């Protein structure tokens, strides 16, 4: 049984998380005992390394136990400096990050580590204001889970963050072929987006995309010239479901634009269609 959780953010967190972690651990164990086989994707996802940056010992330990039951390799830290050192020694595939930490806070950690990793960063925090969510996403986070939470939701979000969506290998008006990728005209010259390799290149330069940016660009690129509403994009970026404000898409579009177009005054790859949504304009 996981250790009793302390409740720095109030009693309901401790009771809710302990019950949910314990019950989900039992159900996960039962599923694994009766599962007749696993897909290649299941095995690949389970082999991934997860970092938990959380200063609540009880919650951190319970998350670690749950994820280890699911087959993940887990590293844990209670402060940002330790987390940075762990990732420098051996990079993680996905990170769960609390915002309210002693010393370096979660926002600063995300801004520090984002330039050197494309690993999905999922914030787990009791701070549930819209400004906090936007600030975390603008700092470089890919997703945001509010406390108290069900660990089954965290598991689903980890799987979604690690998932690379399938896509049809068919020609499109953007010059898309399996060999060449999707050719996009940016303000700094042509880009080649290769969904199979999950890369975006400008000449020999590889523009690093986060998991969420990849899914956003893929959703737009597979429907070139078509206006995609925020709701359309949310359903493709978070297929397991998204419970927040759909305007979170605007934050990710803004971040993606800074990578593909450095001149904000010129017409770029991604166009805003006022009152409707966004459209990708390929070559």
UniProtKB/TrEMBL annotation:
User: Any keyword Chloroplast?
Assistant: no
Keyword terms, alphabetized: DNA-binding, Phosphoprotein, Transcription, Transcription regulation, Two-component regulatory system
Q: Where are the transmembrane segments?
A: none
What species is given as this protein's source? Nocardioides turkmenicus
Instruction: Write one Pfam family the protein is assigned to.
Output: Trans_reg_C
Superkingdom of the organism of origin: Bacteria
Q: Which SUPFAM superfamilies match?
A: C-terminal effector domain of the bipartite response regulators, CheY-like
A Gene Ontology term for the protein's cellular component: protein-DNA complex
GO biological process entries: regulation of DNA-templated transcription
State the PROSITE patterns in the record: OMPR_PHOB, RESPONSE_REGULATORY
Task: Name one molecular function that GO assigns to this entry.
Answer: transcription cis-regulatory region binding
Under which name does UniProt file this protein? Response regulator transcription factor
Q: Where is the OmpR/PhoB-type domain?
A: 181-282
Per the record, DNA-binding region residues lie at 181-282
């Amino acid at each position: 049984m996981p250790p009793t959780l302390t409740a720095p953010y109030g009693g309901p967190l401790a009771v809710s998380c302990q019950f949910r972690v314990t019950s989900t651990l039992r159900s996960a164990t039962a599923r694994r005992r009766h599962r007749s086989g696993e897909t290649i994707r299941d095995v690949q996802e389970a082999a991934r390394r997860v970092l938990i940056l959380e200063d609540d010992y009880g919650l951190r330990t319970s998350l670690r136990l749950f994820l280890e039951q699911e087959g993940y390799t887990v590293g844990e830290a209670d402060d940002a400096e330790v987390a940075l050192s762990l990732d420098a020694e051996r990079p993680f595939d996905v990170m769960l990050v609390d915002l309210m930490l002693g010393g370096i806070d979660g926002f600063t950690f995300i801004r520090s580590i984002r330039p050197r990793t494309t690993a999905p960063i999922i914030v787990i925090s009791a701070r549930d204001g819209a400004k906090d969510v936007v600030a975390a996403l603008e700092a470089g986070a890919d997703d945001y889970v509010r406390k108290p939470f069900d660990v089954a939701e965290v598991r689903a979000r980890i799987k979604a963050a690690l998932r690379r969506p399938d896509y049809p290998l068919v020609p499109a008006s953007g010059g898309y072929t399996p060999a060449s990728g999707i050719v996009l005209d940016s303000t700094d010259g042509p880009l080649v987006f290769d969904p199979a390799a999950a890369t975006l290149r400008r000449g020999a330069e590889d523009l690093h995309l986060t998991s969420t940016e990849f899914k956003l660009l893929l959703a737009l690129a597979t429907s070139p010239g078509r206006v995609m509403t925020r709701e359309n994009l949310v359903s493709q970026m978070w297929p397991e479901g998204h419970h927040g404000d759909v305007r979170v898409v605007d934050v990710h579009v803004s971040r993606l634009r800074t990578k593909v177009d450095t001149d904000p005054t010129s017409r770029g790859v991604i166009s805003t269609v006022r009152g409707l949504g966004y459209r990708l304009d390929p070559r």
